[in-house]
Every structure is written in structure tokens, then in C-alpha cells.
Write a structure and sequence with these properties.
Elements lengths: L1 H10 L12 E5 L5 E5 L9 E5 L8 E5 L18 E9 L2 E11 L5 E5 L2 E13 L2 E11 L8 E6 L2 E8 L13 E3 L5 E3 L9 E4 L5 E4 L15 E5 L5 E4 L7 E2 L5 E6 L5 E9 L10 E6 L2 E8 L11 E3 L5 E3 L10 E4 L8 E5 L18 E7 L7 E5 L5 E2 L5 E5 L13 E8 L5 E7 L4 E8 L8 E3 L3 E4 L4 E4 L10 E4 L3 E5 L15 E7 L4 E6 L4 E4 L2 E12 L2 E11 L12 E4 L6 E8 L12 E3 L5 E3 L10 E4 L7 E4 L19 E5 L2 E4 L8 E3 L2 E6 L15 E8 L9 E6 L2 E8 L8 E3 L3 E3 L6 E3 L8 E4 L5 E4 L18 E4 L4 E3 L7 E3 L5 E5 L12 E7 L8 E8 L3 E7 L11 E4 L2 E4 L10 E4 L4 E5 L19 E6 L5 E6 L8 E2 L3 E6 L14 E8 L9 E5 L4 E8 ...
Parallel strand pairs: 9-11, 20-22, 31-33, 43-45, 54-56, 66-68, 77-79, 91-93
Antiparallel strand pairs: 1-2, 3-4, 4-5, 5-6, 7-8, 8-9, 10-11, 12-13, 14-15, 15-16, 16-17, 18-19, 19-20, 21-22, 23-24, 25-26, 26-27, 27-28, 29-30, 30-31, 32-33, 34-41, 35-36, 37-38, 38-39, 39-40, 41-42, 42-43, 44-45, 46-47, 48-49, 49-50, 50-51, 52-53, 53-54, 55-56, 57-64, 58-59, 60-61, 61-62, ...
Amino acid sequence: MLARFVLLAAGVACAATAVSSHCLYTITGDNGDPQTYDFSSLATIDPWTVPIVSDSTQKSGTLFLSVCGPLKGLTKAQCPDEDASGCLARKDGDQWRTLVPSAAAATANTTLVLRDGTPVLIMPGHTPCEPGRNYTIILELLCNQDKVLAPFFLGLTGCEIALGWITAAACPTTKTGRACSLAASGGYWFDLYPLANDTAYRVAGTDGRQFYLNLCAPVAGRFCPGQKAAACEVKAKTSLARFDDSVTLRHAPNGYLVSTQRSDNGSVTLEIRYYCDQLAPLRTQPKFIKQDNGITYFAVHSPYACPPVPVDCVAYTRQGVKIDLSPLRKTNSYWTVRDPRSNYTHQLYYINVCAPLPRSLPSPCHAGNVGACISNSNRSDLAQPLGAVEHPPRVTKDGDLILTYRDGSLCPDPKNRRKIHINFKCHDVERGPEFLVASDDCVYSFMWLTPAACEPKPDQGDNCRVLDSRMLYSFDLRSIYNKMNDYEVQMESYSYRVNLCGPLHKPCNNVKNVNVCLVLKNGTEIAIGMRNDRLEYSDGRLSLRLTGQECLPGVKSSVTAILACEHIDPDGGVTQPHVFASGAGDCNYYLVWNHPRACPPYKEVPCTVQSEDGALYDLSPLSRRSINHMARTRLGNPSGVLLNVCRSVVFNRDANCESTSGACLREGDKFINLGNVQTGPTLDRNVLKLHYKEGALCHAPQGPVHVTTTITFLCDEGAIESQPEYLGEFQCDHALFWRTSAACPQRPVSGHNCSVLNPSSKFRFDLSPLAGQDHETTDDFDNKFVLAVCSDLSSTNKCSNITSAACLTTKTEELSLGRSSSELRFLHGGTLELRYKGGDACGVGRTRETIIEFFCGAEGSLEGPRFVETLQGCITIIHWHTRLACEQPVACSNSLLGLQTDLSPLIRVTQNYRAELPDGRIYFLNVCRPLVPQSKLNCGAGAAACVARKLAGGKMVEELSLGYASTSPTMTADGALLIYSGGSACPRRPSVNASTRIDFICDPYGVNSGPIFDKESPECQYSFIWHTSLVCGPEEEEVNGCKVYVSQLKRFLSLDSLGGQVEVGKYTIDLCGRGRDCSGNAVCQRSAEGTWASYGILQKAVLYGDYLKLYFGGGATCMTNKTYGAEVWLGCDSKSNGTGAPRLLMERPCYAIFEWKSDALCLQRNASPTLPTSQPDIPVEPALQDAMPASHSFAVASLVLCSIFTVAAVIVIFVRRRYPLLCLSWRFPWPSSASHTQVHYSRETLSTY
């Protein structure tokens, strides 16, 4: 499109143009007929703002634009040129700085040309751009009667700033009937024709002069001389102007409507300004303003000049239930009610709900924003407005649903104005409005029985589960129950004890089966919420309704528990409930809990990208977990674009968007998907952008299949808490602009004296403890590398004739690999780098160099330097793991409400995981930590995943870093998800950085498959599947005396196999409670005095990951209201001899936890299916199916049955989570050829349906 504007500038001289005013243009169309364009509707009080993004910082900023005159309301710093209609400025911190003072000038020769039938405004400025040329704004206007959007930036070519604008003003005007009507937004029309007088208005001017004037019609002939006079001075011989109905009514920059008329010689001599005044009389009297430069000005204040005020048609009850009356709203019709009183049967009432009445009614009934009107069936001209649409319906304290329209016409008693009061009542059948009474002060009351006033019946489900019937998604809140402790919510003078989806552990005032207990300051407890597990879902909100004991005499307390969505905290934080009373002395309470279980499935992608020069862009500070960003449109209505950054929009009743959408448009109660979260940010010619694609279907004739959203970010260090701006939509692509500090690049930071500061965390790395000593490493050929850190080598290791910090010793020579330097650099991914230059000569004009990259490796891995490779024969690469490069290792576990995923046992310290493909590619991975350095593999120090191609001689080539471990694993439906981001530039799309996705799948048999390559996306995200028991959720097992039924083994495990009584320090353990010291208890403790304290008997067993956890309780009294308890974690140790021995893991008051590993407790069986390590997908050829063993044929049939059952997804997921063995037995001994669906859902959200 930019090339098109280059041609436009050359074609201006040849285009036929006619400029009749600043806003009105007439031009000859392609068919030879004149076409008139009126841009007055684009004139506003405040300037339009258009973000300009350019490769040059001197041309990047905010463009202020005015279409019909000079800019107003700006400071001198923003725009010093008073004649400018276009001005480019930039805000640095709190200060504005002008870049182009006059990109367009109001007094310049602005012209209109047609290009392929599209109007284009050429707006030259006064500011020079280059010798002989000034800046010019090229404004292309695209006709669309249904759109009123803001202008948007298309590009900057040379001196031309190209803008686009989708608007109804770009459509040619008609020739007749426009003098007093004008299209507004939302399909509404201003209609001023009812203001026309049968003859004329007589208006008093200054100096005793009098004028005859008519509105929207000519003055009657006997008052003014000539034909069709628009106005004249009394007793004058000529009229001021002739009335011409083809002259268009238009918007003025100051917000009023304006109509102009001309004299016989064609000059403008009359201007009438129409101001919105909802309280003015319907037939208002014009007022004389002034006469200036041959133009006479008049003002009219009228409700007919008022635009519609859009309102939501919803109300919320005191319990927060949404009631929507929009089904009663009519677009082209209305509700009619006849007055039932005997003397008033001739009166008709016209009513609309939350919208103005249509133009088809008598003119007083559509005077502005009139929502109800009373009319005489015999005399329509006697109609009176009953009020304007200004406010949504509301629910009163008494629970009545009321809609009121105020500021109607004057009553017979002029102290009051007419208004209408409608009381909506729930009813099974639509009855329509019914007249009740009209009071002396002109309040007209109606009753309306309608199903729309009924509280919507929520979806309900038992056992804290409910199915959303709209999205067919099952919410399961059972796991929010804290099995260990109750939640305590502390207030000033009282507190609450809370636990949902299960009873409080401690009774409330001796009352059991309670969810919420109020604890007063004096210790008195009141059960304000008895247990109720019936979960309700309505309009994006989950709730539990609880009733309790009497709070006041005769008044029972109640608690409305509201569960709201909050995405999982990557740092593993646990959300807390909040409780508050609805009012002073009230017995109604609200419990609000933001929780991941209340979220539908959502998607998250890496939020960083790296430029070619190494600068890192990180938008993750803009990514929100509990609330969304909002970008309002310029229309001034409550609609707007809801969006999140690099993750799905957070689901709630005000953001009922599709679960994968990164942006959605809210239009009243409708939510339209503007694009799904698919990839992270990209750099497009150094401009940072985020794209959401595959939204709702696009209905534009020339548009793509689906709606998309493009967010353009501009770096502004001072914009800390900024919000995005909505620019508009073109061909179904919604454009937003965001000025934010998060868009500023993070470049490598250097420090001296062997230390450097992390600019984000302010942590200072110091490698000086490594200085002052020599360090050695060798390559595969036993060549020795001697290295110093930030200093010279010691005298015993001098090499060559150069004072060096790095030296290579071979069998035949010694070479200096560079002189010392103490300049330490902090690189992307947390890697530290030292560069030594100026070593021995290496070829013509070059010297040898050494690059040492320090990184924080896995705990327990070998520290020190490791030779990697020599680049171009001259640059030696050394990787060095040291604790001095560690700031805070990424946690390799994540916990949520007692459920924990811990992948730290998979961390490698001596060698990397490998996944090899037949084409020679090898994937190297570690878990939560950087790769273990190895010779010939140079993927960048600190990378957690890498791909390379292995040549025949073992040399690694085409190394590509697949990302760094910067976030902890998150819990998913099937186990856990680990993302590595910020890798090398994607070879296919250099603007995107490579990343890694590892889906850890629960394998209850304990099989650890290692990483299995799954697929590679076009955006270079490399996906792996990893089967392990470490991510299996807890399964409570049946306890039968001294035996525990292990569901995964389908057999009982006898605890007798571990032997009898065992001593662990001061503790004695006998799992079956038969020991001599514990008196029938399983665990007991001996005090210093020799007495024994019982820790209870076995109460439950839970299979969690690699452990069978035994919980013991009901022991002796430990302290007030507490008893002793213990846990014994039984684990597998195949190397142990016999029963093994328990050890004390943790001890706290009244509680102890032991670990007991034994080969007798290894849960993996020989019959368990074996998964391959890493191989490509192997399809099954049809010809081979007959040759397959019967067991394989059965497996295929079983898999087909599983596929059929997935149609009923709710049932399948429930079965799979509750009975995993059902599908485990159907596994093939090779990976499936189907692509694995990428999900990033909360395990607790999807654990069971």
C-alpha cells in the first residue's frame, strides 16, 4: 500500500479538485459526475492521535491530527505552530518534544484526489523535510457506513506520512435532504426537521435589529423577499441567504452541529449552530450570536441535537447475579401500551428498553435520546417525550428491577418534567408493559412481567463440579480443599476459618460439616456457612451458596462464595480467600477467591525476543494472571478490546471470551474473538509487535478468513503503568498501539573489576575469587589450556613472549590465546562472559582470542572450565560452570494447595539427555538447568536445550540454542509443562527466537522415557514428550488394617514386608502398630524422662509420584486442641538390601515426617510397557497390519475405541484421570504418529470432569 502513496504525490497536479470549505469537497468522479465528500463528522474538539513507528527515532512519536482546521488544545511543547493541522511530537518521560511542528498546515492547499475510487486527502505542511520539499500527510479514507474508527498509521516514505481511516465520512454524500439530518454512530441519525416552523422564527439581534429565520426549511414568502429565503433582516429588501436542502448538516470541531447557507453569489452568509440540550423545549427559539465578515450566526439549543448515549442493559442483584434486559430492546420498532383509564383511552405510550425510539414515530418521540413517549392517537403533533435513555436498569434495596427515563418534556406544572418508571418482574410468559398510574408530578409508572427479568438458571453440579453448558467445559474445584489445614482470614477484631469443597478440620463451636466459621475477638465461634458442595455456574462466574447458624435473633447467616479465575503463579504462590460482610450488622457474607481452578483452559507462550545485535525484549511484565488490559474505542461507549500479553484473556463474567483468545472485543454483552494466542512477540524491522491470529470469522469481502489483532509496542522508559490504545480495524485486522517501558531493549551489560550488575534484579556477580590462580582443561587430543580469570597467568605458566591470560600448550608449541581483561559482560539468559584478545598471530592480520562463558550449572555438577571448540581456527570457546555465576536457580518444582510437581530428580549433572533422529539431528536437553558442557558442542553457555547435526567424524555442526531455563514447570492436565525461551534466532523466521516445550506425562508405572521428540512448529518451538511418574497426582488408596491397596498395581501391599519395630533416633516406628513400645500405635516418641508419646495409627494412604505416603493421626494430646501426627513416605530404592531403613525428613511441633526406601517398595513391574528412548514417528503400513501379533491388533482396536469415546470428551477425561490403567494397557511400543495437542492448562482445572 505504501507504493500507492508514492504515485499519489505525482498525480496531484493532474487531479480535478474543488475545495469549497475546510470540510466539504466536491470532485469529479470516475463516471464524470460530481461527488461531494463531507468530512465535518471527523472534526472533534480534541485532536486525533496517531502513533507513528519508524526506523528513525526522530520520526517516531505521536501525530496530532485535525481534519477541518488547525489543532486546538495542545501545549507549545506538543505543537508550537498555531496553524498546524498535523504535528508530530514525542514524550520523553514527562516532557513533550516536537519533532515535526507542521506535518500538515490548515492554511496550506489541502486537496482531495480519487485513486481507484477512494478519496485521498493531500495535506501539505510547512516544516521542511529535505531541500525543496516539506512534510506532507497522505490520508486515505475508506468508505464504510458502519464504522466510526480512529485514523491509523500506514507508513512513512521519505517526506510523506501515510495514514488510513475507515469511516462513513469517506462515502459520497447524497444531493438532497441532508440539510438537517446526519448519520451518527450505531445506525442513529440526527433529525432536526421537526424544528422547522410553518412560517418563520422572529429573532432579536443587536441594535434593535430583527431577523426572520427558519430552521430546516425556507422562510414563508411573505416575510422575506425572493424565493426560498433561509433568513432575512426584517424590512430588508434582500435575503441573507437562500435555503438549499442539498447542503449537508455536519459536525463542528467544538461538538455542536452546524448548517450553512449561501447567498446568490455563492458565498457563505448564514451559519446556524445546533447545541445539544436535552432539557430545552421541543420547539426552541433560535438566538442571534453575531455578524462577522458578512456571515450571520444563530444558535439553537435543542434535544434534537443530542446524540444517543449507549447504555448496558444489564443489572446485578445483591448476590451478583446478572439480569439482562437486552432481549426487550427493539431496533426498528417499539412497545405500545394504551392508557386503560376511561378518560385517557386516546393516549398511547411508546416504549423502548435501553435504546431510543425509532424515527418512524411522531417527531417529538425521537427528539434526541428519547426512550419513551406519550402520544395522542388523534393528534400525533401533541406527543410528549417521557424521558431520555441515560442510565442502565438497576436493582433497588428491596430487590426490585427498575428502569427509569428522566428529563422528558415539561409538565403542566413547569417545576417538573415528565419521566417514566418501569418495574420489571420475573414471569414465565412475556406480558409486555402495563400502565399502572400517572402521578400529579408527571411520573408515569408501569409494571412489566417478562422472562427477561428472571435470574438466569445457573448450571449446577454436585461434588464441587459443574459443566458449563455453553463451552462444554467442566469446572472441578474439589482439589481446592486443603487436606492439611484450614485457611485463616484475619481481620481487625475477628477472623474467619475457611475450607471449601470439604469440611473444616476443626469443628466450629462444636458444629461439624462447616465450610466457613466466624471467630469473634472473645473466641466465640459462629458457623456462618454450613458445607454445601453444589457448585453453580452462571455467566462466567462460579459460586457456592452457603447458609449457617443464626447471626441475629431469627436471622440466619449466609455466605456467597465466588470463585474467580486467576492463572497459575509461576513462582508457586498459593492464593488465599477473602471474606467480608455485605454491610454493617448484616448477616450476609461474601467470600471471594481468585484461583486457577476457576479458569477454563488457557494458553501461554514465551514473551521474549532477541534482536540481531543481542538486545533482549521482554514483554512478560505486561502479562497478567488475574485481570485484563482494556483498550477502549474512540466511540465513547462501554465497549472495548480486552487483551492480555502472551497469554489468554483472563476469564470472568466481564471477559467471557474464548479460552484461547489473546484479545476479544466486547460489544455490550457479546464477546468476539479477535485472535488466539499462538506465538510470542516478533521484531519487524526493529519494531516490536505481537500478533494474535485465527480469531472469529472475518466478514470483510477482501479480508482474510479469520479476524486478527496486531499490537505494536513503542519503547518509553517513563511509561510504567500505561495502557494500550485502540487504533481501529482494517480488513479484519484490529490494530493497537502500546507505549510502554516493557518494550525497551535490554542490552548486554558490562562491568569492570571482574564484576557486573544484573540490570533487572540488581544482583552483582563477582568472579574475583577465581582470580590469582591458574585453571586447566584439555581437549580430546590432550592439548592443555591454561586460563586465568581477570588476571595474567602466573609466572610458571608463561607462554610465548606475551603476557597472557590464556595459553594453549600442544606437543610442539605454546600459543598465547589472549591478554587479560577484567571487563565482565552480563548476557541474555544470565550468562557471564570474559573476552581475551591480542594473543599470538593467527593468519594474516589476526590474533588469537578466547571467550570464556560462565554459567550457573546444575547443583552437584563439576565446576571449572571446559573446552568446547575453536572457531575459525583462532577463537577458543570455553564454558565454565561456577557457583559464582548463580543468582537464584530456577525452582524445578511447583506446588499449589498441597499438590506438588517436583522434577528436580531429573536434573543431570554429568551428561545431557539426548533425542536422536535418523537424519543426524541430535537434541540435547537438561531439566530446569543449563546443559552440561561437552566438547564440540557450542550451543551457547547457559542454554537448557540445543539441537545440532552430527557429522561422520563426530563433529557437531549447525548448533541452535533452543532456549534458557527461566521459569519453573507448571502443572497441567496430564502432568507438567516446562518451557525454555529466548534461544537462537529461528532460521525460517529470524524475528522469532527458538523455544522448547516439554510435556511431562504422568506414567503411574514409574517409566522414565526421557525426552521423545514430538514436532517442530514453523516458529521454531520444539516439542518433546516425556513420560515419568514424578508428575502423577495424588491418588488416595484403600487402607485395610496393615495392608494398603495400590491401585496402579491392582493389588494390596502388606506393610508387614518391612519388618517389625524400627528405631529412628528418639522415634519408634512399627507400621502395623504391633511394637512393644507404642501400645498399638504405629509411631511414637520417647521423652527424656523415658515416657512415650503416641503419634497415632494409620488413617489414610496416598500414592503421589514415586512415594506411597502413609498418614498417621489420632495420637496423644500435644498441646491445646492439637494431637500428635506423622507421615511415612515409602519409596523405591532398588540398590537397598532388604527392607532398607527409615530416616527423619522433617520435624516440627506435634508432627514428624519420615522417608523409608526399600527395594521391596519398587512399584515398577516387569510387565510394565516399555517406551522407547527417542526415535521418529513410525507409521503402520496397511500391508503390515495383517502380520501384526494379535496383541497388537487388539491394541489397534482398543485405540480406535478410545478415539470414538473422545467424542464424549467429558466422559473420557473423567475415566482417564480416575482409571489411568484403562488406557495405559493400550499403549504401543512406539510413539503415535499423530501430533500431540499442545496444551497449557492447569492440572487442577482439568484433573477430572
